[in-house]
Structures
1.
Amino acid sequence: MSLSSANSAPAPEDKSSTATAARPSLWVRYRLLISVGLAVALLDQWTKALVRAYLPFAQIWAPWPAPWRQWIRIVHWRNTGAAFGLYQGANDMLLWVAVFVIAFVVWHFRHAALEARCLRWGLALQVGGALGNLWDRVMHGSVTDFIAVARFPVFNLADVAITLGVVCLLWSTLLDETPEDSTTVAASQSAAPAAGSEADAQPPRPPAGERP
């Protein structure tokens, strides 16, 4: 075996550039957040607009028969506090808290792996619910609540989305979904084979007693 043939071995493939090229676009990363967040916020605002337009304040609408009307009612109510009637009168402070939460979730969503479905759905639902209530605080100075279940505090669809988002995040923790982006992991894993490629490209040693 000659040294010239050994030196003509093909150069190792640059896998780091391949991993970088495979990084998903911003639309692929954020399309779930945008679509689910907007859908939740628009549905929440539509239902609140119907309540404000057709149901006077503090009035109850329950057209279904007993005993369901005693457990589930539509009530036009205004909430200047947090979800489920907490922290009444803190609308201005909660407005800025909602802005901070939305900004943090949007930033965290970028680093969530595409395979972490429960994590991404939970963050998207929370953004949609936060946007729905934030719009109420900015435009009306309070949040419109209208769903009354038994003696539970009156709430709205945005509160439901936020609660479901928390459930998804807890379920994601139980599933041990990693928040790290899979492309970052792939890039770090490809560095190990690339580091050993120089050793693989070395020409094999001839058997003992045989001259090259």
2.
Amino acid sequence: MKSRVSFLTVPIELQAIALACNHHLQSSGFRLKHENNEHDYPEAATIDARRKGERRFYIFDDKVKAQRIVLWSSYARSCQTSTFVVLCIRKKSIVKPADLVMLKSLGVGLIVIDDDAVLSEVVPPVDLTMNITLPPLNRHRIGMRRQLQSIHENFRNGEWKAGFEEACKLVEKSAREYLVRQIRASSVSVPGKAGNPRVISVDDAKRLPLGALADVFCMRLYPKQIDSHLCDGLKRINPDRINVAHKKLTNATERRLRTNVARHMWTIHNLLRQIPA
């Protein structure tokens, strides 16, 4: 059931789209504050939406106004927790190509809402508090560069958690393929029961997740230098990878991931460069 909300600061012609957006956010599990104006806000946020450590500011207008967009994007970049800004306008409003370019460059989302209260996302919002500069792609072999391009695109679109998860899958796949090649070229052994060496088979290697792969590289008898790097690097990223892959992000693990993800991406890039082709 739609809640009864009255927006005092929204012009009458925009009330319908504000109510439609409000209902959509309620249905999506957000906790909402209406026309909230904290001491540090640049102005009252028509809808201040929060969910799982994430905050989204929804502002409503009859067109894209550059000064207002810059104001909100600048404020959001000064926040500490995951913060997004979304502009909502009517579908009949005129949006110029230059407006879309500006919104994308500032990381502000755009939603248009038609007369039937249907929402369409035209520009996805970006987490404006994340400032990650990824390693250059030109340091990689062409094949690896192609695989990394979509991961970098995720980060550019603000989907940094998805980008990190895909990067972990790529380094896991590359490390496993390297281990299989090592097994086929010569046996790979780790300490077994009673101190006797245990040989890792190809079938064993193909079943190993990232954390278990790290253990093999850490325990490998007669390790190569790359094995030591894989041991350290995979162990460093694995706890955060587990939380992202299994959706175990609490406020605490989210904060830790936000702190670690930039360095994790540099670690992953370095490992992908070092793993022999």
3.
Amino acid sequence: MGKALGPVCALSLLLLGCAPAPPRPAASPVPSTLPALRAVRIGTVDLDRVLQAHPRGQELAQLRQRILELEAEMRTPLMPPQLVPPIPPSSTARIQQALEQRVREIQERIRSETQQQLEAHAARLRSTLQAEIRALQDNARAELNRFAKQVQAEQQAQLTARQREMQAALEAKVEERRKELEAAIRTYEEETARAYRDRLLNLRLKLEVAQPGSREEVDRLVAEYERLQRERDQKVQEFQQEQRRQFEAYLEEVRQQANAELQAYAQALEVQARQRVAERERELQEQLAEAVRERERRFRELLQAYQGTLNRQARERAHWEIQQAVEEAREAARAQQRAAVEEARRTLQELGRRAQERYLEEERIRVERLARQLRELQAQQRNLEETLLAELRVEAAAVALERKLDVVIVRHLSAPRGLDITDEVLQRLRRR
């Protein structure tokens, strides 16, 4: 409605300016052009600033941080089971103690190095992912801004063309009506002149043949002649005035009709433009969301693949170093415990199998527990974000009404001609 007022008012002034003075045979209206409409008042709200500065923004940030910590904890496996190969007792007790200590050190060192490598790689992947997401968001905002400008330009061009068509039609209708009025006036003047012609000619002849000595008769004839002329001219003048009133009423009717038509057309264009921009924004948001999900999937796949590689390398390193330590211990105790080495190897394999089963079960239970916690936190995050966005929409709508804005754009868009109402929305949110 706001955008249509400019051209409607301009059209009203144009129609009043083209109404002619009392009709004259050679007169014609001077064409004029309609002024352009004023631009849509757009308000923008920086969603990121609002969420950061909201009284509950810290709560949302803490939820997000806790979710990231749980995700990292889920991707970090438990410490592999520590296996200590059995050493035959008796005189090899000191060798066994030294071997156990060395195995613990090997396992702890490899686990710590593996965890550090995994965390560093996860941080690099997360940084790259966030940079890609920011670039996608910037591209989406730029694309939506460009599309909005294009739609606005198309809308203005359509409205301007419509104004020109209406102006040409109005000028043609006014000119046609003016010609009809002039023809009606000329016809009436001719008919009125014919109606009075005989009586005026009769009086003129009487005056020409009147006797000079009959002064009173001459004066009476002159007075009657002038009265008839005045009566004739008055009828013509009254007819002209009536025609002018009808012409002005016709102009007013045509002007109001044109204003209503132009206003309706401008409103339809505005609604269509908003729908197109909103539809394009939804498309861009869906594309952005899909791109983010795809990169999250790729992030998890890369991290899992890297984690699998690290675990495999850690197992191989631990196995090799432990085997080396075991061989050294065995070599030291081989003279006294040659017969018990085979039994110790079988015992170690059984212990490893059992330890691996316990390890897998503990890891499964831990992952399920963390997954439940993660789902609960994600639900809390969604509920809090929906609450904050609902409050933002209410306060943005209130500010838009106070500032008489036509459109308030909240997500991923910058408008060069828009009015930034972020601070006002924040003030309202802090007062809630």
